[in-house]
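A brief tutorial aside. Many learners find it easier to grasp structure tokens once they have seen a single protein encoded end to end. The record that follows does exactly this for Glycosyltransferase. Read the sequence first, then the structure, and try to relate runs of similar tokens to stretches of the chain.
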Amino acid sequence: MNYYIIIPAHNEDQFLHDTLHSVVKQTVSPKKVVVVNDNSTDNTEHIIDRFTSEYSFVTKVNTKSSTAHMPGSKVINAFNKGLELLDEDYDFLVKLDADIILPDSYFERIAQIFSSDPKIGIAGGFIFEQDKNGEWKLNHPMDKSHVRGAFKAYRKSCFNTIGGLKTAMGWDTVDELLAQYNGYNIYTDTSLHAKHLRPLGNAYNKKAKLLQGKAMYTMRYGFRITLIASLKMAIKQKKPKAFWDNLQGYFLARNEKADFLVSPLEGKFIRELRWKKIKAKLFN
């Protein structure tokens, strides 16, 4: 299978070399890797240039966006900049963060997964992060059926059907919901362990805390599901304030009449799917 990788990178000189090294060592090499240097002020571009000079399939594109590390819009704007350089001659497309180390056979396994079932639309493994003692521990705050946004692989037909990635917080949830709405399945492989070098959320600013609630509004969750999801998130993160931040973000988005990310019909499917999962957990 042919595959392309897009890596958005903003001031990633601390991690990018290890990420790219793990990419070029893959047992099944990517057809093309586009690294998007997004307004970096450190040595990120020099690291990219070293790899582009050594590996013909690695390409660089420079872009300028806000310096604020806002989840959602910034990274997907950079991703879309890289997407402009790619043609349609691929089987699956990968959005990869610049602070991830992948096992050597990672994409060989992803290719096998997509080859095994044409209804699998999104695939990935699991993220591990170092604790205070230096041990790599699983960090997967979402359901085990969810692929973290740091390393998502999309079958081409699925990616095109869902209309690409949304430029908003919640893009890595709504993509899976829309994939399922369109008849695709999500596949996670517990044997695929990726190392995340920067712990989740360390670079997010205060404004970003409200965006999760806004995302729930724009995905048409409705208040009751938002309430349950916010409570679950706060408990998992052991951060009671996250519950109130989410609800505040939800009501701010509702009062501002923020644009929805999905249609009313898609929203109905999403709510039914969410209720089905909630009830399954309550009664199983």
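Self-check: The chain has a mean pLDDT of 91. If you spotted this yourself, you are ready for the next section.
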